[in-house]
Amino acid sequence: FYKNPIFYPPTEFEHPEELPSDYPPVIAFHSFKGGVGRTHLAMGLALALKKQYKDQPVLLIDGDLEAPGINWMIKKRIPLFPISYSDLLSLVHGDPDPEAKTSIELVAKQLKNAQLDGIYILPAFRSFNHFSSREIRPEHIIRGSKDPFVLTRILGELGKKLNVSAVIIDLR
Q1: Which of 29, 126, 131, 169 could staple 63 via S-S, CB 3.0–4.6 A?
Q2: Is the Cα dihedral 139, 152, 26, 106 positive or negative?
Q3: What are phi and psi of 138, to 5 degrees?
Q4: Which pLDDT tens digit goes with each residue over 121-152?
């Protein structure tokens, strides 16, 4: 799959190394256009995987910092989250360890209290009051690393810490 230029065109970067076998798969839903059902598909897959792997939760991340659909969909059930994707980005950006082990540990600990129906939810923002504040963005993390796939590795590590069957991220 990775070698097929139709699915993975050549870039200035090397192809990503596969995540270690003890990491859960990281599945990204992405579209430049809004309103195509990306968030619904991400949530549907999370529910399907949770049903299939009854003993293991799923990690669902709202990585759409422009229009956080997952935040909107579950705000009545969890009005204030203990940690968010924007918090993760800020922690990783400020972490002196290039592996961001301390940041990942902190986020995993906070996520233990953010499970909904067997799915860990990492919203884009902790609350709608934080919606407009996003000083650290994913590109800041990528630019500061020699590995252009550093966020995938970090999300895989977070999923491993939480012992999830999959990490699903809804992106813009």
Answers
A1: 169
A2: negative
A3: -55, -35
A4: 999 988 766 555 566 667 767 676 777 788 99
